[in-house]
Amino acid sequence: MTHLTDELRATAQRLLDLADETAEDITTNDYWHSQHAPRERWFENGIDNAVGGPAGKLAGLFSPEASRALAQWLRFEADLIVRLPDAEMRQRTCHTLAVARAINQEQP
Asked: Residues 78, 88: contact at Cβ < 8 Å?
């Protein structure tokens, strides 16, 4: 079994890889290029158009930038656990791990 910090870091890396791939696709694939939305909202606009409804709006909020920010938070939490083991708070760690597992679609 891997240590929970490994799980957090793996999830962070997965998010970063997907964010980079998505950002590249947004830049190079004409599907994303909209005259109806500013460039910084191309992802949100494209997902909303493709999926629609509340699901499209929710998915559109999870942009490459949001993915990178979430990845930074997961790495921060993993580093904090390693650097300051006494700083680990049971509920905080449980919630952080729950987010990582939800992204990876794993059961706790």
From this structure: no
